[in-house]
User: What shape does this take?
Amino acid sequence: MSLYLFACLVLIIAPICTLIHELGHACGAKLVKADRIKLYLGIGKRQWTVALYDLELTFRSIYFVGGVTESKRDRPYKKSEIIWITFFGPMFNGVAATIIYIIHEVHPNSFLQLLFWFNVWMAVVNMIPFKFKGKQTDGFTIFNSISRK
Assistant: This one.
């Protein structure tokens, strides 16, 4: 992989795929009528925030390292609603990968290929249930929601 493609992967593709993933969680939260939704992209100091209705999107200084979506509502979520919110993140990556694959078939290039594979990776890895250093995958959250009585 060239240095150019690696830089694109880290600085452009990973944040785009993370944003797609977190927007999936935000849409899932909206679907189950969350009162407030906050989406954070990256770590570090807050650089800027955009608010649209009940969604607040915050970009942090190290924007290419992870993301998280928080949603709240006055009445507690049901188990099935937590599962939907959680599932929508990987699902959005899967849908994005499918769309990017179709575009890549018409206009093949390395950027689209990396964008496709990173979305596939995020969709698949996030559905594997595991926990590491206090963080857990969406698959772990779904597994816990299903297995809880």
Observations:
- The helical segments are 3-31, 79-106, 110-127, 138-147.
- DSSP finds four helices and four strands in the chain.
